[in-house]
Amino acid sequence: MLKAQQISKTYGTGNEAARALREIGLELGKGEMVAVTGPSGCGKTTLLHVLAGLETADSGSIWLGDDALHGLKEKELAEVRLRRMGFVFQSYHLVPVLSAEENIQLPLLAAGLSRKEATERSQEMLELVGLSDKRKAYPSQLSGGQNQRVAIARAVAGRPDILFADEPTGALDSGTAEQIMGLLELMNRQYGMTLLLVTHDERQAARMQRQIRMFNGRIVEDGGTAGC
């Protein structure tokens, strides 16, 4: 479903150059749950950003189904992200002046859904994440765990093919982190979307079907190989 070949990424030049990714090859299957682990600075987040088209690789190719991401311009990449990808980050990235309901509706409206469809979808998602009673609440009125649940609802409301989650439990206490991981697993089962989780938490990584470990910009261990 997602395939990367010979992906390299370097920051800086000359003596200041830092090689973040070194000839990465990776395949993710449809509906697969995969964790990427490794020490700080090993390239985990850079890999996620490059696979999602948020950053450009220096070399290599990336395919999401039939879409060749490495050959797309930024406007085209943005369209693929809107149609086919969902994102959950440690810091939520909710719009502070919008309610929970409006935060979920925003990308749906951008994708072309009608106001009625976006409203119905946002209400459906808020019910699924257990926040129906918070639909008019603003991020400042919600706890960290509640904000992350809104972020997950927003990420999957458009039924993406793949969900990228970068340290989604990093700012949460252990009990709330368990709830968030359970919710991500539920979304995977409910909608069949691929989940790529970047985490430093070995307990969360162990919940995934497959674990990939990185070190110094390379994949040094892969718990399984998926078909595309």
From TrEMBL:
<dbReference type="GO" id="GO:0098796">
    <property type="term" value="C:membrane protein complex"/>
</dbReference>
<dbReference type="Pfam" id="PF00005">
    <property type="entry name" value="ABC_tran"/>
</dbReference>
<dbReference type="InterPro" id="IPR003439">
    <property type="entry name" value="ABC_transporter-like_ATP-bd"/>
</dbReference>
<dbReference type="InterPro" id="IPR015854">
    <property type="entry name" value="ABC_transpr_LolD-like"/>
</dbReference>
<keyword id="KW-0813">Transport</keyword>
<dbReference type="GO" id="GO:0005524">
    <property type="term" value="F:ATP binding"/>
</dbReference>
<keyword id="KW-0547">Nucleotide-binding</keyword>
<dbReference type="GO" id="GO:0005886">
    <property type="term" value="C:plasma membrane"/>
</dbReference>
<dbReference type="GO" id="GO:0016887">
    <property type="term" value="F:ATP hydrolysis activity"/>
</dbReference>
<dbReference type="InterPro" id="IPR017911">
    <property type="entry name" value="MacB-like_ATP-bd"/>
</dbReference>
<dbReference type="InterPro" id="IPR027417">
    <property type="entry name" value="P-loop_NTPase"/>
</dbReference>
<keyword id="KW-0067">ATP-binding</keyword>
<feature type="domain" description="ABC transporter">
    <location>
        <begin position="2"/>
        <end position="226"/>
    </location>
</feature>
<dbReference type="InterPro" id="IPR003593">
    <property type="entry name" value="AAA+_ATPase"/>
</dbReference>
<dbReference type="GO" id="GO:0022857">
    <property type="term" value="F:transmembrane transporter activity"/>
</dbReference>
<protein>
    <submittedName>
        <fullName>Macrolide ABC transporter ATP-binding protein</fullName>
    </submittedName>
</protein>
